[in-house]
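Let us practice reading a record.
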Amino acid sequence: MVVLSADDADRRLKAARTAMWVVGVLAMIAGLIVFLASRDATTVPDIDPSRARVFGIVSLVIGALYLVLGAAVRRGSRGAIWAGLVLVGLNLAQSVIAVTQANDAGVQPGTYVVGLVINVLLLVLLWRALQATETHGSTALEHQADRKQ
């Protein structure tokens, strides 16, 4: 077990929350752009508009999920951290598959590398947040409450 000060634990939880919020907002922006672009079939001629709409809606929902989980992570919720780890792990697996199949789809593999790096970074931050909840055998929130008294 990693023993952290309350301040270090607090910094780790804030970093994980912020990263989840950034990823969530970016996913929602991308989803909104794709959804709106899918309404005009001439905008992106090589993509089926119905599939683009579904992708846009799914991106909006996943982005909202990242925002909600980020708030819970900041409060030190181990369940939210584990849910975030699972979500990011699935996203990371999808990114790895996309990178390996990029040439078959006619896309440069480098296109997906940014997503891969972001997912690895988020996975590390969430893991560090999970360690922060184990500070001194109790949650970081209990330490924050003790500090405020």
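A brief commentary: The two ends are 26 Å apart (CA to CA).
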